[in-house]
Amino acid sequence: MSKIRVTQVKSQIGRLKNQKRTLEALGLRRINQTVEHDASATILGMVSKVQHLVSVEEIK
Length: 60
What we know:
By secondary structure, this protein is of the alpha+beta class. The protein has helices at residues 17-26, 41-49; strands at residues 3-8, 34-38, 54-59.
């Protein structure tokens, strides 16, 4: 299974509560924090909900 690297690039201040919870569930708590996850359907769905707050790159 491939992996992805997710980095928070924008603040969660002023965002909807479900977006804040999605960032927290991904393991992101502050700007420029990076986490790695398996590219499962669940994780990709979470990333798509907050795509305007994060950047994603595939890890080979």
